[in-house]
Amino acid sequence: MLSYPATLSLWASPAPPGSTHDLAAARTHGTIDALASANITVLADKACLGAPDNAHVPYRGSRWRALSTAEKTADKAHARLRAIDPEVIATSGEPAPSHMT
After folding, report:
1. Which InterPro entries match (predicted)?
2. Can you give the pTM of this predicted structure?
3. Do strands 8-11 and 2-4 pair parallel, antiparallel, or not at all (unpaired)?
4. Which whole-number Å values give the CA distances from 67 to 50, 76, 90, in the listed order?
5. Which residues pair with 43 in a beta bridge?
6. Nearest CA to 54 among 73, 74, 25, 33?
7. What is the DSSP code (8-state) at residue 57?
8. How far lies 94's CA from each of 49, 62, 82, 89, 98, in Å?
9. Residue 71 and residue 37: Cα distance in Å, rounded?
10. Exposed/middle/buried for residue 60 (C-beta within 10 Å: 0-12, 13-18, 19+)
11. CA distance 55 to 45
């Protein structure tokens, strides 16, 4: 689903058959290429690692490398900007996450 920060749902893909990864589904529908060619920056989740540079994803730590303070701060800001707006969910037909009900 693509949504504008001001609670506007822009586009939602039809449900793909079976189990399809988010990034694969976005590539199938041409969303990744369309946004990249239009030079539109998007905030994505970690499932979009490997997407073009216009898709900003959170930093990833691991068992062997903890996130720096700056990376943690950036991830918190990223999460706040990506926060799902209940009105977008309501217009998309998706059930609201439990923390919003």
Report:
1. HARBI1_dom
2. 0.60
3. antiparallel
4. 19, 12, 35
5. 56
6. 33
7. -
8. 24, 32, 16, 5, 12
9. 28
10. exposed
11. 9
Rounded CA-CA distance 75/84 in Å is 15
DSSP 100: G
Q: Are 65 and 71 in contact (CB under 8 A)?
A: no
Distance CA 66, CA 2 (A): 31
Among residues 57, 29, 26, the alpha carbon closest in space to that of 43 is found at 57
Q: pLDDT tens track of the chain, all 101 residues?
A: 677 666 566 777 777 778 887 788 888 888 888 888 888 888 888 878 888 888 888 888 888 899 999 999 988 888 887 766 555 555 545 554 444 44
Q: What is the pLDDT of residue 7?
A: 59
Burial readout 29-38 (b: 16 or more C-beta within 10 A, e: otherwise): eebbeebbee
Tokens read off for 71: 């990376």
